[in-house]
């Protein structure tokens, strides 16, 4: 007996388009697009402490966007500066309240990425 046409919506159908879009892609390429990398790196965080870190450990420090993760930071540094990143560590400092007499303000919170690059490579930061 044939199913009636008004019950056809209950039949399971498979979509070939959906199967094609779920093909295996490397984790490095998945979720990181060029448009997403534009706002990842805000600026190079240059202080005396970070300058010592560059000479001792080949580690550069960048201020990054609040939503950025390690994979996005790695891809952004590699694409912008043309170096090989071997490690990324992320530190998020919180906003702190500051008082000057009865005036209350706050320090800015910043999210930093400590990126270690391959030995022998350098990044030219202006």
Short précis:
The chain is of the alpha+beta class and 126 residues long.
Report what the structure shows.
With about 130 residues, the protein is of the alpha+beta class. The chain has 4 helices and 6 strands; from the N terminus they run H-H-E-H-E-H-E-E-E-E. A 4-stranded antiparallel beta sheet has the order 1-2-6-3. A two-stranded antiparallel sheet has the order 4-5. The mean pLDDT is about 80.
Lay out the secondary structure.
Blueprint: H1 16-21, H2 34-37, E1 41-44, H3 48-57, E2 59-64, H4 70-81, E3 85-93, E4 97-100, E5 103-106, E6 110-117
Antiparallel strand pairs: 1-2, 2-6, 3-6, 4-5
Largest sheet: 4 strands, antiparallel
Report the order of strands and helices: HHEHEHEEEE
Q: How many beta strands in the DSSP annotation?
A: 6
β-strand percent reads: 25-35%
Enumerate the strands of the largest sheet in spatial order, edge to edge or round the barrel. 1-2-6-3
Could you list the spans in which at least 5 consecutive residues all have pLDDT below 50? none
> By helix and strand content, what is the structural category?
alpha+beta
Helix content: 25-40%
Shape: flat
Mean pLDDT equals 81
Task: Determine Rg (CA atoms, Å).
Answer: 24 Å
Assembly type: single chain
Number of helices: 4
Termini separation comes to 77 Å
Main attributes of the structure:
alpha+beta; 4-stranded antiparallel β-sheet; two-stranded antiparallel sheet
């Amino acid at each position: 007996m044939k199913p009636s046409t008004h019950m056809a919506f209950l039949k399971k159908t498979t979509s070939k388009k959906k199967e094609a879009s779920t093909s295996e892609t490397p984790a490095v390429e998945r979720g990181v697009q060029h448009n997403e990398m534009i706002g990842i790196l805000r600026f190079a965080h240059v202080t005396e402490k970070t300058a010592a870190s560059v000479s001792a450990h080949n580690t550069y420090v960048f201020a990054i966007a609040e939503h950025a993760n390690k994979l996005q930071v790695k891809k952004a540094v590699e694409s912008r500066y043309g170096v090989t990143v071997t490690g990324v560590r992320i530190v998020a400092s919180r906003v702190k309240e500051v008082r000057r007499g009865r005036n209350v303000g706050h320090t800015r919170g910043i999210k930093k990425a400590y990126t270690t690059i391959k030995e022998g490579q350098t990044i030219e930061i202006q």
